[in-house]
Structure formats: C-alpha cells, structure tokens
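About this split. The held-out portion is used to measure sequence recovery: a designer receives only the structure tokens and must propose an amino acid at every position. Recovery is the fraction of positions where the proposal matches the reference. Here is one held-out target exactly as it appears in the evaluation file.
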C-alpha cells in the first residue's frame, strides 16, 4: 500500500476520492482462480463489491487515504498494527458495522 502514497506524491493535482478493496475473502485460498462463470459463484462477490463500494462512498471522499497517511505518521498505530493493510481492513470493517450492512 506504500505505492498509493507514492502515486499521490507523484500526481499531487489529482483528487483521490475512494479506495475500495474486498472486506471478505474472494476465494477460499489466495491461489484459487476465478473463472468468470457462476461455477466460482461470482454473484456473491459482485454483491460484496457493491456493498464495499457503497460503504466507501458513505465513508466519504479521501477517508481511507487519510487513514493510510495516519498510519504512516503515527508510530503507535504501526506498533499496534504492524501491517498497514490489516489496519485499513479493520477500519473498513468497523465502518461497515456502523453502516449496518
């Protein structure tokens, strides 16, 4: 995720609004492959994507990008959450609970 901050620094005149990633596992294992047919049950992933996108909008423009920067700037967050991706995931899940999806 450090690349996100690098991209923002490289293109400072771009407005970065929403960051969306799945809040649930897309496949059973990281090596599973989605083949684009219903044999991999893509409908449930589409629905999860819609919920995750809706929640990103509810969090507001720039919210996750601010959390990414916050993690980099606060050593106590890095100590509590050694991996930024895990911290961002926790924030997304917590916000989703607030939105009661």
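Reference sequence for scoring:
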């Amino acid at each position: 995720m450090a690349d996100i901050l690098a991209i923002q620094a490289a293109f400072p005149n771009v407005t970065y609004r929403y960051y969306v990633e799945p809040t649930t596992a897309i496949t059973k294992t990281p090596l599973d492959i989605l083949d684009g047919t219903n044999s991999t049950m893509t409908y449930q992933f589409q629905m999860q994507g819609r919920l995750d996108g809706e929640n990103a909008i509810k969090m507001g423009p720039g919210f996750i990008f601010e959390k990414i920067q916050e993690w980099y700037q606060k050593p106590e967050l890095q100590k509590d959450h050694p991996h930024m991706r895990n911290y961002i995931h926790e924030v997304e899940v917590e916000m989703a609970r607030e939105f009661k999806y």
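Annotator remark: The CA atoms of residues 88 and 94 lie 10 Å apart.
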